[in-house]
Write a structure and sequence with these properties.
With about 210 residues, the protein is α+β, with helices and mostly antiparallel strands. It is built from 8 helices and 8 strands.
């Protein structure tokens, strides 16, 4: 249900929340902020539906969504669904063309140490990625390059004994600037202040240190 982005400006999140779930889905075709819905199973409470900001759908929104889903199935045959899913499965089974990892990494970060939080960009991706790895930085960047099939440019990296905790703290800090996945719309000011922010967030983490 995620939608591609086409416009440079999105409305305030509070406006989105008030506009109704179906209207949000329709408008997401031209919003900077895409809309995705996730089913979250909770053993003690059943299944809840959340948006990508982890806000729960209200009963009214769920009723509105269920009505539109029922409408879809009323005009879509089992055969159409079967053929669609079969085509998707066949497409996903096709072997991907060979791709050689391409990474650009500052010499000062070219270390054998394990446990990193990194900031990276790619020509084909909007924004920058805030990622973490418990392995050597070069290994993770090469893997990422193959995943997105593009060059990965490492902008900054921090050596830490708790990379995933620090990564989660950075994701939370920049949550309002999330584009998708772990890619964020960080300004030049955000990036220049990242070192001080990491020091601040790492103050309670043992072993957190800049890598140079």
């Amino acid at each position: 249900m995620a939608r591609e982005t086409q416009q440079d400006v999105s409305p305030h999140l509070s406006d989105l929340k008030l506009s109704g779930i179906i209207r949000r889905l329709k408008r997401s075709k031209c919003l900077l902020l895409p809309l995705a819905l996730f089913a979250n199973y909770q053993a003690d409470r059943g299944v809840c539906i959340q948006d990508e900001g982890e806000s729960l759908l209200t009963p009214e929104e769920w009723a509105e969504l269920k009505h539109e889903i029922d409408r879809f199935f009323s005009v879509t045959s089992h055969q159409e669904i079967y053929e669609h899913n079969l085509a998707i499965n066949r497409r996903n089974m096709l072997p991907a063309p060979e791709f050689t990892a391409q990474i650009t990494i500052p010499e000062r970060l070219n270390s054998d140490g394990e446990g990193w939080v990194y900031l990276a960009s790619a020509p084909s991706k909007a924004g920058v990625k805030i990622g973490a790895t418990g392995r050597r930085l070069q290994i993770r960047l090469r893997q990422l390059s193959c995943e997105i099939r593009d060059e990965i440019i490492c902008l900054e990296a921090f050596h830490t004994s708790q990379p995933f905790i620090l990564e989660a703290a950075l994701h939370k800090h920049f949550s309002a600037k999330l584009i998708e996945g772990e890619w964020f719309n960080l300004s030049a000011e955000d990036q220049s202040g990242l070192s001080d922010l990491v020091i601040q967030l790492s103050s309670d983490l043992k072993g957190g240190e800049r890598c140079w």
